[in-house]
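Check out one such.
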Amino acid sequence: MKKTMMRTMVQKSISLIFLVETLLLAAYFVSVTMFANLQVAFLSSLFIILGSSFAYKKMVQTKSDSEIFSDKRDLLDDIEDPHGLYDDEPINNSPVEELDLKEVVKQERAKIKTFDLKSIKHGLAGGISLYRIVPYIFLILGFISLKNNALLELSFYLPALLVGIVVGSLISQEIIS
């Protein structure tokens, strides 16, 4: 069942891309400049949206598979009390008069998360992905090649970016969800 559903979603996505590409091919008969701008902009934005969606899906699946969230507190608790100051756990079983305040402060500071190598790695994993980098390289090189060959027409290029964003969003919603 799941394979046939996935196949249907892929077929819908391919049909949508084929339809848009057919319309873009019709622009070739109007003007080569128009076709080049539409094609480069459409593919650039389509690849960026799809790459970002796939990279995000991969990152979420990796995090959920690692079960890193299984022992986490409730999201609302994290928002209201990010450092766990109002937890019901006692700091020390000793009476208040016998507490070593320096030790209590050290324990509480240890609970606060700081900027470390692990948090840097987590941030880079989401931002640096070939699914995200390659489409942006395609966008930059396509734009530069249009500019260097005197083919760049922003009146065609910018609307085609929007079309690519819309098609990419539809496809990513269809396949990724």
